[in-house]
Write a structure and sequence with these properties.
The protein has about 300 residues and is of the alpha/beta class. The protein is built from twelve helices and six strands. Helix content is about 50%, strand content about 10%.
Length: about 300
């Protein structure tokens, strides 16, 4: 069972941590797509949700035309479904048997964690003693998603990837799986413990129900980028350090690499988590700073 959770940690990525604390409302449109153009190049930009319910349809004529026109695809990770690579990295980064969890978090949080995982049918806190706090935080986010019927296997990233692999078009990654894991695993232990405490003590969030996930997916599906931006902006206020690491700095890196694509002839499709295209310090804002204006086409 523990391995099953670990296989979903990376797929959820930075979006999941924010989902655990904030919900957004519904609007009416379609998932947002932007395009950035130069006289000789074009890059389509699409914000994804890493976990969706099986059977959910969200493609459109605009989306399919952009996918067909694009010559290659850029994801956060080239192969988000690389289970062997994930488990290999997690052995070193997620597990720490020499420092049992109950020696790092408060007695009250041990009790809350025990209660939380048992509510999802798991053995209890004692079975998680070897896991580091950051890994448990990710697990607490994944649990209600699984319970609510969401699956990384149905996520928009893998859907888009399949379009390109089926067409024998190249797929690239801005980052490696190991890099993504280190964004969380390299946090100081005190910050990991504080984050786990916030998740355990938060109320009315996706850590206790799927309501926030449902609302976020609905807003993404309906193209309400302003509502999604509320998640990114509130997240930055709640935890500026972690937000800087997993959103702000990565957004700047994504934008820099996209700018590099625009200096070469051709058409590319970029699909990264929806939070990266929302908020005051988004990839779109960073592209503006570099002199590239993204125009929304859906």
């Amino acid at each position: 069972m523990r391995v099953l959770f670990l296989r979903r940690v990376v797929a959820v990525s930075s979006l999941a941590i924010a989902l655990a604390l904030f919900g957004v409302a519904r609007a009416s449109a379609l998932p947002a797509v932007w395009v950035v153009e130069t006289p000789t190049s074009k890059v389509y930009l699409f914000g994804t949700v890493h976990v969706l319910k099986p059977g959910m349809t969200w493609h459109s004529a605009v989306m399919d035309a952009a996918l067909a026109e694009s010559q290659d695809l850029w994801l956060e990770i080239a192969n988000p479904n690389d289970q062997a690579g994930l488990l290999s990295s997690m052995r070193d980064l997620c597990l720490d048997p020499a420092h049992p969890l109950s020696t790092q978090i408060s007695t009250a949080d041990v009790a809350l964690l025990d209660q939380r995982v048992k509510a999802f049918g798991l053995p209890g806190e004692s079975s998680l003693e070897s896991m580091r706090p950051w890994c448990l935080s990710a697990m607490l986010v994944v649990l209600p998603m699984m319970h609510g019927g969401y699956s990384a296997a149905s996520g928009a990233d893998l859907d888009v990837r399949s379009v390109f692999t089926n067409a024998h078009k190249p797929v690239h990654g801005f980052e490696t799986m190991d890099q993504q894991l280190h964004f969380l695993a390299d946090m100081p232990e005190a910050e990991q413990v504080a984050q786990l405490h916030r998740l355990l003590t938060s109320t009315g969030s996706s850590s206790t129900s799927t309501a926030a996930v449902d609302d976020l997916v609905a807003s993404w599906y309906n193209g309400d980028v302003d509502r999604v931006a509320l998640v990114a902006d509130a997240y930055a206020k709640l935890d500026p350090t972690l937000s800087s690491t997993i959103l702000v700095q990565r957004n700047a890196n994504f934008a820099k690499q996209i700018a590099g694509m625009l200096q070469q002839p051709g058409v590319s499709f970029v699909a990264v988590g929806a939070l990266h295209f929302a908020g005051a310090q988004s990839v779109l804002a960073d592209l503006e700073k570099l002199g590239y204006h993204a125009r929304r086409i859906q």
